[in-house]
Amino acid sequence: MDKIEMHHTLMAARARQKMNWDDLGEAVGRSPVWVASVCYGMNSAPPDIAQGLANALGLEDEALIEALKAYPTKTWDGAVPQDPLIYRLYEVVGVYGPTLKDVIQEKFGDGIMSAIDFSMDVEREEDPRGDRVKITMNGKFLPYKSW
Amino acid sequence: MDKIEMHHTLMAARARQKMNWDDLGEAVGRSPVWVASVCYGMNSAPPDIAQGLANALGLEDEALIEALKAYPTKTWDGAVPQDPLIYRLYEVVGVYGPTLKDVIQEKFGDGIMSAIDFSMDVEREEDPRGDRVKITMNGKFLPYKSW
Amino acid sequence: MDKIEMHHTLMAARARQKMNWDDLGEAVGRSPVWVASVCYGMNSAPPDIAQGLANALGLEDEALIEALKAYPTKTWDGAVPQDPLIYRLYEVVGVYGPTLKDVIQEKFGDGIMSAIDFSMDVEREEDPRGDRVKITMNGKFLPYKSW
Amino acid sequence: MDKIEMHHTLMAARARQKMNWDDLGEAVGRSPVWVASVCYGMNSAPPDIAQGLANALGLEDEALIEALKAYPTKTWDGAVPQDPLIYRLYEVVGVYGPTLKDVIQEKFGDGIMSAIDFSMDVEREEDPRGDRVKITMNGKFLPYKSW
Amino acid sequence: MDKIEMHHTLMAARARQKMNWDDLGEAVGRSPVWVASVCYGMNSAPPDIAQGLANALGLEDEALIEALKAYPTKTWDGAVPQDPLIYRLYEVVGVYGPTLKDVIQEKFGDGIMSAIDFSMDVEREEDPRGDRVKITMNGKFLPYKSW
Amino acid sequence: MDKIEMHHTLMAARARQKMNWDDLGEAVGRSPVWVASVCYGMNSAPPDIAQGLANALGLEDEALIEALKAYPTKTWDGAVPQDPLIYRLYEVVGVYGPTLKDVIQEKFGDGIMSAIDFSMDVEREEDPRGDRVKITMNGKFLPYKSW
Amino acid sequence: MDKIEMHHTLMAARARQKMNWDDLGEAVGRSPVWVASVCYGMNSAPPDIAQGLANALGLEDEALIEALKAYPTKTWDGAVPQDPLIYRLYEVVGVYGPTLKDVIQEKFGDGIMSAIDFSMDVEREEDPRGDRVKITMNGKFLPYKSW
Amino acid sequence: MDKIEMHHTLMAARARQKMNWDDLGEAVGRSPVWVASVCYGMNSAPPDIAQGLANALGLEDEALIEALKAYPTKTWDGAVPQDPLIYRLYEVVGVYGPTLKDVIQEKFGDGIMSAIDFSMDVEREEDPRGDRVKITMNGKFLPYKSW
Amino acid sequence: MDKIEMHHTLMAARARQKMNWDDLGEAVGRSPVWVASVCYGMNSAPPDIAQGLANALGLEDEALIEALKAYPTKTWDGAVPQDPLIYRLYEVVGVYGPTLKDVIQEKFGDGIMSAIDFSMDVEREEDPRGDRVKITMNGKFLPYKSW
Amino acid sequence: MDKIEMHHTLMAARARQKMNWDDLGEAVGRSPVWVASVCYGMNSAPPDIAQGLANALGLEDEALIEALKAYPTKTWDGAVPQDPLIYRLYEVVGVYGPTLKDVIQEKFGDGIMSAIDFSMDVEREEDPRGDRVKITMNGKFLPYKSW
């Protein structure tokens, strides 16, 4: 079972079980964003979590558990994303990229924020003028070194 | 004076005055990230802020203030960024884009996070295993409507 | 049922029922352009409209109704469209983009026209020298804010 | 004088004279959007209008008038625009392109909306929940013919 | 039946019937180039022509006739064509594009040659040094207008 | 003097002398389209024609004559042209490319129309419904051979 | 049978019959490079050669012979080839393109080497330091002409 | 002096001295194609050859000799060349690439023809039907090895 | 059996046999990196190694052995890789490419490191602050020659 | 002084002083590859190293030292490099990317080799059949984590 079939199997089970990402995150003791990224085939699950996700969704298929544990090859469609929700994030990187580079490197020195030793969270912030999406990214700072 | 010349003038003054983004943000009562984006020519400053930035940096040039107030045309180089710090943000959008879309739309319904009614913050999180960069994005949720 | 199969099912039923977009719009009390965008899989329908569309077309398939309600991932082929009708719209954006930016921002200040809080209409304007297509776009103005 | 120098000369004069696009349109009896497109070098002005624009802006330069009358070569940067205001229009073409094609061709038969025999208007629509931008495009329908 | 299946059906029938494009053009009273473009799925046929083409090729399939009448979405592979015959035409547009623009606009004023109100013909010109291909394009001139 | 400077020199002289392409073609006994392509730097002129063009335009500059005779490196901007007049020609190649390939190869066998042993003409065809542009391309047929 | 299926059929037969390109070239009295290009679907075979190839490979399938005779649409994957053997040829064109243009046009005048009236040969040149590949290209010179 | 200035200096001197590539090749005892590639900045000359080229062209500039000896960074414009002479070579690589791969690897085993340990020659072949360009490429075969 | 099917067959057998790349390398007396590249279809195996790999994995399929011996056409997805592990290698080439060119050519003269007469090794280097990946590339230096 | 001017200043001084990368590395106690990357503007130097490099090259310019210390924006030309030495490295990433991913992840688990906490070395390996280039890359392994 490859990551694409795994994804469809999990999404169908999630709909059947009426579990949202918060439920699924809680069931395995992990963040809902990370759990979603696993179910989208973009992260591998450690064995106990793979088992836990299968249990929570009522799926006892060994091939599915193997697929959850497999190390993914991460790819995406095209250089510029098209779906408006994803494009807005790309636009933020384009518009604010040099700003973020300068602010981060002023605070930390020459280096980068890791996208591997990294976590991310999404919250709903209530606001009478319209609720707001709050995305928090948290990555280890990695300094460039001389050698 | 166009945004590029404005940017170089501001960066040189900032170096001369030894003001970092926090200082400059404080001087005009705005977030350091937003102030940096203005100085990178990616946002326009309201008149009082434009004046305040010029004052803080000891620059009393009318053309500079006009440049700060001008509405920018926002562009960036290429579809795929190359600087490693900015690329990692692009990679996050590629790897986690569909995950974020699903998590946000599950929480809010069909719609997007605005990149216009939007703010962003960068913090340093101390950690004995290596300090961490924390980026917070906050954008209004905009629902798709039928008509 | 994914959005592509949904689209083919709806188009076939529409042909069988000899209903045009005006008829279908009227049947569910929505604009024909928006209804068409739903049937092309580019917008999601609220539950009652999804049901209404299925009824109007004589399709009582639950999977179809789910597909109508599903939040779409919006994508299109290529960066430059090729079909002449669609290319002409792209050309209008290329030729008049900076003009529209200037005229809108002069009228409203620094910001954009939303493509999410947005509606669109198409009319036929009779003209003895050849009838004319009139497209009206209507989007909320979103101002950039400082923070 | 090429179209780029012409553009900068006109924009500087417009700022000096504090004339907005409505003023300039009124001065020559044309739509502000079309006048702006001429000043952005994307359309040529007939001789009397070229003279009228120069007069209205207090510019009596023969080379400028020649530049206004010159037939432009229309080009733009990149296949996918980046400025958020212009990108949203591009996104509308991507998301609604096939919808518009179907709705227009159902109303008119096989053919296109001309982008040459074409006009466009921008209005501000007041709305207590936030004012709205209204863009109207009006192009002659051109049917495909057999031969 | 989509345009691709329609194309293969027609080409197979054409081979069986040993009809060339001249024969088929004559059978329906249209130019062989236009008839070929219909059979390649790049133009729609009016009902009587669609019927005529089906008759001429001995195909009495209603779905085929519907496919011939359907309004096509015109697309092609890639930005730069590769087949040498088609590339040479692309090269002509690249090499002579600005020349043609200048010559046409000198003769007609600012505007374009329509590719919609358009016809095209191919002839064989005998020449002792090697026969020559003569392609004639004929499109309505569309002037840009002020508004 | 390179081809770009040569082009600007020739265009300015042409304007001063009020000579159109027909006049210039007649002056040197060549087609106006070919003469224009030479002045746009896309073809080289034989020595006598180079001299004739310089004479006709009242330019007796040796460097200019050398530039006219120089063999050009033919390039153009981008894979997809943007100016509407040139784009329409590109669109014709895209839409009708496979049609032309089939019609030509049916008439001539496997091979191509040369773009080198090639000529082109532009005529104005009067028409009460709007005058028409007629472009004629004439290229030697080159058959593929076995070896 | 399309060119792809034809290719696989021929390659399988060639392996079964243990015939290399030299054998196959000899069998039909043609160059092994040209025969290989036919079997790769990049050239059409005259009827007698098509028959000869089928005979030599013990394939008496009429559809195969038709596929060998069919005029190919020549396309390839991507603008920059990736296989190292083919990339080296592309690199030669990139590195030596302007050099070849200058050397050829100095010898022949303004014009090109035809890729249609063209043949090619591959030889093995023994060399104690490592054998060498010798590729010979031979194309008719086509001069640009004035008209 | 960089390679671009070096190139222009050499080309001007070559024109002044009326030396063609054959003359220049003879003057330094090297192939005219290789000498041209050096003068186009695509290969470095050993010290004695650099001195010899300067002598032959009557240029005694130390900076020029250094530029001739400098190791070049080899780049070219775009992925797909546009000048027709160079494009035809690119087309040959596209059309015959897989054919050449198969013929070479059948003769030599798995490996490539080097583009570094490589030479190339251009000859004029007289032919009553039109003279022909003969290009010979000669590169060391490099086998892939296991390790 | 093509290289893709071969790859899947080998990977499944490897999982069944619980053999890692070191085991498989040892089994055939070759480097694990090279063996992996063969199993990924990017290198051909000599007959005895192909047999050895099949034996080691308990696969006695003649078609598989033929597939292992076949000379591959090496291609990859896209110009810029997306998987983070592979992208980091691409980034190293982008960031350090000109540095490596200068350091290598200073040491060796004008030329390149072969990617054909080439081997590569991966080692795990223990480090208390986090283990390190050590990749060693070893390629023959190929000097450019004059001719 | 920007990184480009800094680079040219350093290269000129290096030539004047006849210091190679080994000399310069030794002068500041760092690897020659890292020192070269600093001089190419792709890494920033800590203050003492910046001073040391300036001293070693006899350059006492404060602006130069600031430029050496500045945090670079790392970019490179194009997605696919063209210089043959750099292209071969790109080819290695394309051909062996998935192989390296598998071998590394088998040894270390799901994660990547850092290109930031990274060093690189180049050595000359003598070999009677032709000396060899040995490149060693050494990067910290970064495991993906769940959160």
Automatic annotation (TrEMBL), chains A, B, C, D, E, F, G, H, I, J:
Entry-linked SMART domains: Cyanate_lyase
GO terms, molecular function: cyanate hydratase activity; DNA binding
Gene3D superfamilies: Cyanate lyase, C-terminal domain (3.30.1160.10), lambda repressor-like DNA-binding domains (1.10.260.40)
Entry's EC annotation: 4.2.1.104
Active-site residue numbers: R88, E91, S114
Function field: Catalyzes the reaction of cyanate with bicarbonate to produce ammonia and carbon dioxide.
Species, as recorded: Kushneria phyllosphaerae
Protein name, UniProt field: Cyanate hydratase
Catalytic activity line of the entry: cyanate + hydrogencarbonate + 3 H(+) = NH4(+) + 2 CO2
Domain Cyanate lyase C-terminal: 75-147
Keyword Cell division: no
